[in-house]
Amino acid sequence: MPTTLSAYCLTCSSIIPNQRDDTDIARAALNTLEWNASVPHGRLKVVVESGWITLDGTVERFFQKSEAERVVRNLLGAKGVINRITVKPVISSADVRNQIVRALERTAEVDAKRISVEIQGTTVVLRGAVKSWIEREAAERAAWAAPGVASVENVIEIGA
Fold this sequence. Notes:
Blueprint: E1 6-9, E2 14-17, H1 22-35, E3 44-49, E4 52-59, H2 62-73, E5 80-87, H3 93-106, E6 115-120, E7 123-130, H4 133-144, E8 151-154, E9 157-158
Parallel strand pairs: 4-5, 7-8, 7-9
Antiparallel strand pairs: 1-2, 3-4, 6-7
């Protein structure tokens, strides 16, 4: 049988159950998102059903989608998060590609000449060959950091 945590209210001298209904969880999720500088304001919708938080809406960068999920995941009463937020770029595919290529060139860990970057909608495909896992992972991080990237397919080979 699960135990219910509770707290003792000093001002009212009573025990407060540590459970929240869906309305309370939704209000807390909206407040948390509103106070987070990494999450764009007014672009996300929160629905809570049986403790499950569903996030909908659009953002420009993948880190905003991840951050929105991260900040509501551990709210009191939340059982889990369904993240339906989509990433839609506000810049052209060529600009995204150029930003990734420049980031690879700036990274000391990566030999940028050995990596090709393809843009397929909001997906970045990395191809080529590098000497180590560190180089491969650095290239992937550079791709994720670009605006409008919703997924990265890293097919870079190691040891070539």
